[in-house]
Amino acid sequence: MTGSEKVNEKLDPKQEREAESRENPSALIVHEAIRIEGEKELNRPSSSIAWSGLAAGLSMGFSMVAEGVLHTFLPDAPWRPLVSSFGYTLGFLIVVLGRQQLFTETTLNVILPLLHSACRLRDVARFWAIVLAANLVGTLIFAVAASSAVFVPEVRASFLALGLEAAQGGFLVLFARAIFAGWLIALMVWLLPAAGSARFLVIVTLAWIVGIAGFAHVIAGSVEVIYAVIAGPLSWVDYLAGYLLPVLAGNIVGGVVLVSMLNHAQVKAEL
Q: Which residues lie within the region annotated Disordered (predicted)?
């Protein structure tokens, strides 16, 4: 008789149920919770997906606003990026807690149903196309609004600096940075079902790492780079070919390959 069996003999049924309720959920349970959520999202009407995606694109603009405002009014010290990057997390908080559709989240939640059943490919393609288009429209609207006199010139100068910095690096560098961003944001989605009251901390921590490390996020970064296009230093070709294409590809690789496929593989034999 093992030690664990001896301990179990000392527990009555009520105590055993309490012990089970205090266990961390297994990877299989987390996988299935996210897959079921993904199935529900794939079955939503296209109009609902589009409006949710538009809301997410608009909300992500507040990452640029919060980071830009902090950058403007904090003293020019070596630690300033460490603090101003907390502003980058604001858009993610709004989107995740507000249950809005962000493209990089969908590299996990709607991909798990596809890995479970290949017949979902058409549904995933429809969902991705709608969410991505709606997100980008939202970023465009927000960038146009932010370029107006709503913000003081000093803050707008910080927005421009953020956009120029986001667009730097070239195709391969941005692609690599985007893999890490897609990886971390999809991991955030994987962690949330078991996070409980720590959801806020999980979102802030992982989004802050994306911001402070300079990883490239296709939606948050699009607000900044489109702002730089509207302001003048960058062209639409710089944005579409130089930023959007490599970052979108990298986010997909990071989310789908390094999170969805790996975490599906670890529970596939148990399904």
A: 1-24
Using pLDDT thresholds of 50, 70 and 90, give the confidence band for residue 148.
Answer: very high
Structure token pair of residue 17: 């149920």
DSSP 3-state of 30:
helix
Residues near 41 by Cβ (< 8 Å), separated by ≥ 6? 49, 101, 106, 109, 110, 127
Q: Which residues fall within 8 angstroms of residue 245, CB to CB, at 6 or more apart?
A: 171
221 touches 166 (CB < 8 A): yes
What are the angstrom distances between the C-alpha of 200 and each of 83, 137, 143, 182?
A: 17, 27, 26, 19
Q: Which tokens go with 217?
A: 């996020």
Cα–Cα distance for residue pair 123/40, rounded to 1 Å: 11
What count of residues does the chain have?
A: 271
Q: Which two tokens mark 90?
A: 């604001």
The domain made up of 27-270 has a fold known as Glycerol uptake facilitator protein (1.20.1080)
Contact 199, 115 (CB under 8 A): no
The Cα 271–Cα 269 span in angstroms is 6
71/83 Cα distance (integer angstroms): 8
* pTM for this entry: 0.90
5 alpha-carbon distance from chain centroid: 43
Residue-wise pLDDT for 45-58, tens only, equals: 999 999 999 999 99
